[in-house]
Write a structure and sequence with these properties.
Asp_de-COase-like_dom_sf; single chain; globular; five-stranded parallel beta sheet; binds ligand MGD; alpha/beta; binds molybdenum atom; 22 helices; Dimethylsulfoxide Reductase, domain 2
Length: 811
């Protein structure tokens, strides 16, 4: 989230598109109701299904799964054509005026630089024209046809209301009404918030879905302001923390990149990190990258990380491919390229696409370790349930080690929520039976592995032998000690260059990442967390709910990264002089000498508005990007591509149907179905009564939602002779699910490119362990396809067939 849950109440328009907050985030959803009641906000829901969120909306519009880019590009077209944009904001804070260099082009579905063989782009043409000093050229009059705003106008001009309706199946009048509601927030004192989750991310164009709305929000001046922003409603309670501390295969803590094997020295690695500012006077905060990096290495390797050994750069793993995401891991398993797999708090047999492929992969391992409080399907994959399971358990050689672990309620620690708050929690009970904490198990593995390396040597023992491990209890480090290590401390007396006196004594916990240095005198395990545990104590444990303006910002409740800032890009909540756009709901303002207000300003409190530093300091131009330079895998502007399995051609450019840079392996492509055999669009989602695959272990939840079902509209049910509660067989090219049908008014056919299109809804929660009845699981049907940027699987749009059947023997 750029903003916070509480801040939603400040919105004038709340758009839930790509999520179903009332059911998946029922507790946080109260802030939407608060916005409606206290602020007269209009709630707009755009979803293929009429959800419980839709049931309390002021306006609902249906959409075919996988077509949000077409919808939102249509919104941009509308805003630009009607001139319903926040002009001053767009000119001052976005890259609308910057000039794109010659050579950038878009033709018949492809941007310049595409390589047919590698399915990837050379992105060098997606950049600005630079002047002699290396700054981006701009045209504030917007006359130059190559300035970003004009290229954007041209790019979205194809997305007329007729075209949007043809692609998305949304009736034109409904689409236009949504446009009007959104456009009403172009007024400087009005804000719209975008709440989204997996309805956007779980597509082969997931990241571009989100970018499209971010661009709409920039055009409307809704980023950085109270009641605005791009608000990803996160899933598991600590999934934000997962990316923060770098648990993705290509990252390190604090969104630093793991080096590739081509980056053979620290200098080479650093060359692509220290982005030079692209405009005079800009900050380009990643210029501090080296300080964060060296401090991380000091936290990892202590005294062994020295200037002479490039701060132990060689001891980091180096990637030989862009990343080892989960789709790739299972591809490798299937190809016999993986010996063992440690599955910590992860149930891939249930959670990952193409269940048959997951099972076949696990069957080829030598060993599988699961660390889980529950008996998961993955840890019993050899017993898999369903008609397509041909496996004979006796023929599977994989040795499975099940390690029972405690859960969050049985240990102290912190969770990072969607609003980036690090909140401390306290142990409530001891774990049952033989359960041990994740920390104890990981520490045990570390000690044993290090001992083996010590005794027997090995190809490259250095990283393991040199890791620091100075905990009071090395067998099970205390979560507070780990949190302090993440926060970071001074390793030597730090002098303040301005006064030449010691400002921070050696050993002191640091207050903020501005104190980090690249000379080895500071250590910090995760620079964005610096400030969470200081000499004043555990900031994450703070529970003071005082909210000075009653505007949803309680600065002394827990601690938010970065720097306890609650609204990211808050400099953009005020105009160029520092006056809030919306005086009724100010976030920060310039009082003539400094920034004051209810939030921590984006940068130094005394940086004058006249210095012209842009609010988007992590970008080298300091501006919000309507044109994404060289970042995204499939283009600097979002473009509508059909899901990899879709019922229609791409009406914009039939030759390029789907995302040309999507993550697909050849053997997965072989199991894509065609609309001839699988004529219906399927999508998958969760129900309020279950949390994934855990709560079926709890009797009360199992009673509430006892068995697997799919949802089907009345028209299709009638066509197929399917009755309410009757048995159906749903098939995709990858497998079949036999379950009950729920015939509903909540899903209606949509007219897509002149043809009626039916959507079938598949809740995801059933498997073969726990108290609920056994089910095949929705991922028996889903394709193994990943988003081009994030590799998130395309769970939300694929093709199936459905027919009436009789009760299966297994049921
Ligand atoms: N009760 C409960 N709550 C949960 C969870 C749970 O298992 N149970 N899981 C948690 C987790 S980990 C997560 S990640 C979140 C997920 O939170 P959400 O993303 O809100 O949940 P989903 O139910 O997966 O899907 C949301 C909606 O997206 C719609 N949708 C599908 N395709 C499209 C599309 O192409 N465009 C648009 N606009 N909408 C589409 C679906 O119809 C569905 O209503 O929920 C969290 N909260
Ligand atoms: N078709 C389809 N598939 C989906 C989705 C979808 O919308 N559609 N959603 C996807 C999403 S968003 C998600 S997040 C995944 C979820 O997929 P998973 O994360 O694999 O599933 P969960 O059941 O949430 O959690 C996995 C295990 O973590 C264990 N666990 C809980 N606490 C702890 C702990 O403290 N330590 C350890 N070691 N284990 C613990 C639980 O007991 C559980 O068995 O599913 C994905 N799969
Ligand atoms: Mo999730």
């Amino acid at each position: 989230m750029t903003n916070t849950w509480q801040d939603i109440k400040n919105a004038n328009v709340v758009v839930v598109m790509g999520g179903n907050a009332a059911e998946a985030h029922p507790c946080g959803f109260k802030w939407v109701i608060e916005a409606k009641i206290e602020n007269g906000a209009k709630l707009v829901v755009i979803d293929p299904r009429f959800t419980r969120t839709a049931s309390v909306a002021d306006y609902y519009a249906p959409i075919r799964p996988g077509t949000d880019i077409a919808f939102l590009s249509g919104v941009m077209h509308y805003l630009l054509e009607k001139d319903a944009i926040q002009h001053e904001y767009v000119r001052s804070y976005t890259n609308a005026s910057l000039i794109v260099k010659e050579g950038f082009a878009f033709n018949e579905g492809l941007f310049s630089g595409y390589n047919e063989e590698t399915h990837a782009y050379d992105r060098s043409s997606w950049d600005y024209e630079l002047d002699e000093q290396g700054f981006a050229k701009s045209d504030d009059t917007w006359q130059n046809p190559r300035c970003v705003i004009n290229l954007l106008k041209q790019h979205v001009s194809r997305y007329t209301p007729e075209m949007v309706s043809r692609i998305c199946g949304t009736p034109q009048d409904k689409f236009l009404h949504v446009c009007e509601l959104m456009a009403s927030t172009a007024a400087p004192d009005k804000a719209m918030t975008s709440l989204f989750a997996l309805g956007w991310t779980q597509h082969s164009v997931g990241a571009q879905n989100i970018r499209s709305m971010a661009m709409v929000q920039l055009l409307l001046g809704n980023i950085g302001v109270a009641g605005g922003g791009m608000n990803a409603l996160r899933g598991h309670s600590n999934i934000q923390g997962l990316t923060d501390v770098g648990l993705l295969s290509n990252q390190m803590p604090g969104y630093m990149n793991l080096p590739s094997d081509k980056e053979t020295s620290l200098d080479v690695y650093m060359k692509t990190k220290l982005f030079k500012p692209l405009r005079a006077g800009q900050t380009s905060y990643w210029q501090n990258y080296r300080k964060f990096f060296v401090s991380f290495q000091k936290a990892m390797f202590g005294d062994a990380a020295k200037a002479e050994n490039d701060w132990a750069f060689d001891w980091l793993p180096k990637l030989d491919v862009p990343l080892y995401d989960i789709i790739k891991a299972f591809e490798m398993m299937n190809n016999g390229q993986m010996t063992g797999y440690i599955c910590q708090g992860f149930n891939p047999l249930q959670a990952f696409p193409d269940r048959g492929k997951i099972r076949r992969g696990l069957s080829k391992l030598k060993f599988l370790v699961t660390m889980d409080p529950l008996d998961t399907e993955t840890s019993r994959f050899w017993q898999d349930f369903g008609p397509q399971n041909p496996a004979k358990p006796s023929e599977i050689q994989t040795e499975v080690f099940q390690l029972p672990v405690t859960c969050f309620a049985e240990e102290n620690g912190s969770l990072v929520n969607s609003a980036r708050w690090l909140q401390w929690h306290w142990k409530a009970a001891d774990g049952p039976g033989e359960a041990m904490s994740d920390i104890w198990i990981m520490a045990g593995l570390f000690h044993r592995l290090r001992e083996l390396y010590r005794k027997e040597g090995g190809a490259f023992p250095d990283p393991l032998l040199n890791v620091t491990w100075k905990y009071t209890d090395p067998v099970s480090p205390d979560p507070e000690e780990l949190a302090k290590e993440m926060n970071g401390r001074a390793l030597a007396d730090l002098t303040d260059p301005a006064t030449n006196t010691v400002a921070t004594k050696a050993g002191t916990l640091l207050d903020g990442f501005a104190q980090l240095r690249d000379d080895g005198t500071t250590a910090s395990g995760c620079w964005i967390f610096t400030g969470c545990f200081t000499e004043k104590g555990n900031q994450m444990a703070r529970r003071d709910a005082t909210d000075p303006r009653e505007q949803g910002i309680a600065p002394n409740w827990a601690w938010a990264w970065p720097a306890n800032r609650r609204i990211l890009y808050n400099r953009a909540s005020a105009d160029l002089e520092g006056k809030p756009w919306n005086p009724a709901k100010p976030v920060i303002s310039w009082n003539g000498t400094r920034w004051v207000g209810i939030d921590v300003p984006d940068y130094g409190p005394t940086v004058k508005p006249s210095d012209g530093v842009g609010p988007f300091i992590m970008n080298a131009e300091g501006m919000g990007r309507l044109f994404a330079r060289d970042m995204m895998a499939e283009g600097p502007f979002p473009e509508h591509y059909e899901p990899l399995e879709s019922p229609v051609d791409n009406v914009l450019h039939p030759k390029v149907k789907s995302n040309p840079a999507a993550r697909v392996f050849a053997d997965d492509r072989a199991v894509f179905g065609s609309p001839k055999d699988f004529p219906y669009v399927a999508t998958t989602y969760r129900l309020t009564e279950h949390f994934h695959y855990w709560t079926k272990h709890a009797l009360i939840n199992a009673i509430l939602q006892p068995e697997e079902f799919i949802e089907i509209g009345e028209v299709l049910a009638k066509e197929k002779g399917i009755e309410q509660g009757g048995w159906v067989k749903v098939t995709s090219k990858r497998g079949e699910v036999i379950c009950k049908a729920y015939v509903t008014k909540r899903i209606k056919p949509m007219m897509v490119d002149g043809k009626p299109t039916h959507v079938i809804g598949c809740p995801i929660h059933w498997g073969f362990t726990g108290q609920a009845r056994k089910g095949y699981g929705a991922n028996t049907l889903t394709p193994s396809v990943g988003d081009a940027n994030t590799q998130t699987p395309e769970f939300k749009a694929f093709l199936v067939n459905i027919e009436k059947t009789s009760a299966p023997v297994a049921a």
